[in-house]
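User: Hey, quick favor. My workstation is busy. Could you predict this chain's structure for me?
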Amino acid sequence: MAITAKYKIYHLLVLIAVIYILLFSIFPIAYMVYGSFTNWRLGVPEMSFVGLQHYVSLFEDYRFYNSLQVTFYITVIAVSCEVILGLFLAELMRGGSRFFRTIFLMPLFCAPVAVALMGEVIFYEGYPGGPVNGILNMIGIGNIPWRSSPLVAPFTVTLCDIWMWTPFCFLITLAALEAIPKELTEAAVVDGASSFQIFRKINLPLITGPLITISMFRIIDTLKIFDIPFVLVGGGGPGIATETLSIYAYKEAFRGFNMGAASAISVVFLMIVSIVSAIAIKRLRGYYA
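Assistant: No problem, here it is.
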């Protein structure tokens, strides 16, 4: 009797999980794919099949290629810097003060919108300038158009993302470093190995798996970046200099009311993220195998 009741509860919990996945994952994706083949417009109830029209138009649209370029620019630079800085800080703070560890983790608890709003203040360009331009003026460099220049604005967005997510890389890397048996390091010291040799020959090979995992999570997350460029530089500005794929899809859907085109952008975006995820998982599985 007890066993039967146990299995009933088990099947009920599984059913709830299946229903949740169907309602909030599979159905929205399926409807998005369906919508990408129609002339679906926001507020217009009639929808008719248009085939691959949105996809053909998408690959002829310069804004799509610009958003791809901006997205990959931010992702490559931000993730590379976050992983490297996280590794450097973890090695520096290994066995260090808990107080400073806590300080390093504080940006991680900020909302992306809050980070973008702080960026507006820090990189303020008007007179007398924000903290950054104030310091640059004091040392004679002068104002830098952090948010108004199409060339500098993507870098400004990237800096804010690096500031926010480096603590995540630091935290995971520090945990991986502290999991390394101390006997290995002590034996290397006895054999006369330098600190750099210990890092390169012992620490780095042993934390390669966690570093790949961190990179995978950060790449997937940064490809979806929306909040920081949308708030910091006015919806992907100046012009379309910081318009990522997420912002491009948002504008098509809720400013142009073209839900069909926005769905096509989202489908292509989903395919890109899926390919990147598959490659990262394959590399990670090969490492642990």
